[in-house]
Amino acid sequence: NLCTSNRNLSFSLHPMSTESDRDEVRDGVPEEWATTGSCTERAKKRQRIADEAQISEELMEEWVCPISGALPVDPVTAKDGRVYERHDLTLWFEKNPGDTVKSPVTGEEMGKDVTTAYQVKNSIKHLVDRGLLRGAAADTWKAASKEMEGFSAELKQYMIKASQGDVAAMVAIGFAYREGEHGVTVNHAKSIEWMRKAALKDSVQAWASLGVAHVQGKGVKRDYIAGIMYLTHAAMLGSEHGCCALAHYLHQGTLVERDIPMARYWYLKSLKIGITKDAIRLSKDRRTAFLKEHN
User: Fold this and answer.
1) Rounded CA separation 78/229 (Å)
2) Which of 51, 87, 209, 225 is deepest in the core (most CB within 10 A)?
3) What is the pTM of this model?
């Protein structure tokens, strides 16, 4: 027996020890080593832990998203009958334009309609709460679920609409993360992620927001050239905010060479009919002051 062997080994190392020495050694042995039964209990416990870990691993393989390999926080059922994380499946759809797409699992063509898998989400929560799903994946799921619980009902609807390709919803989510609205904390990196999605679908607001973010270095590495390029693109698409931002930098001469006539051109362009009225109050105030001085 392992426990008995360990105890005898302690005494065999001290053949000349006195009875009192043996008592000290015996007293120093952990109590649970004193009987064969306690070793059996520990062996059973180790086996139980190993069995539970195996069960958790097997369950994890059954419930994770086939694309990300993570437990889905916002699970949806696709036309192939599989359950995915909504965000990951949306990215899959975006990489494969068209009315149909190959299933990430079967490789067969399927439509892009999805349905929210409420029962799956409840089942995952039950398994995580009971400790049947555990480890890093379960901890990540808990944190993400807690964050999503704080989302406003409006933001949750934006999430669903954005997954269906709604550009305005993408912009709204980007602004929510940028300003810390709708129950989310400020996260410029996530704001950039959503604005990029919208920009690639020609959202003038998204292009303007990306331009400002690159100039200010919020959510991305500061890059004045990229910032001016994005703002110019936004202005050309008809963004009031893009026009005003360009005019401001031309007026100040900080990022580009100072050019008052060009600044006036962009400020006046921002007032024209057909322009998307997305300028913030600060930009409007700057425009008013500039045109008053340079009219």
Assistant:
1) 39
2) 209
3) 0.68
What is the secondary structure of the chain as a DSSP string? -HHHHHHHHHHHT-TT--HHHHHHHHHHS-GGGSSHHHHHHHHHHHHHHHHHHHHHHHHHHHHS-TTT-S--SSEEE-TTS-EEEHHHHHHHHHHS-SSEEE-TTT--EEES--EE-HHHHHHHHHHHHTTSS-SHHHHHHHHHHHHHHTS-HHHHHHHHHHHTT-HHHHHHHHHHHHHT-TT----HHHHHHHHHHHHTTT-HHHHHHHHHHHHHTSSS---HHHHHHHHHHHHHHTBHHHHHHHHHHHHHTSSS---HHHHHHHHHHTTSTT-B----HHHHHHHHHHHHH--
Contact 137, 146 (CB under 8 A): no
Mean pLDDT of 132-136: 85
The closest alpha carbon to 212, from 183, 179, 184, belongs to: 179
pLDDT digits (tens, 9 = 90+) for 228-284: 999 999 999 999 999 999 999 999 998 889 999 999 999 999 999 788 899 989 999
Q: What confidence score (pLDDT) does residue 56 get?
A: 53
Q: How is residue 69 written in tokens? A: 């390999």
CA 98 to chain CA mean position, Å: 26
Q: Quote the CA–CA distance of 159 and 197 in Å, as a whole number.
A: 13
Q: What is the mean pLDDT of residues 160-181?
A: 93
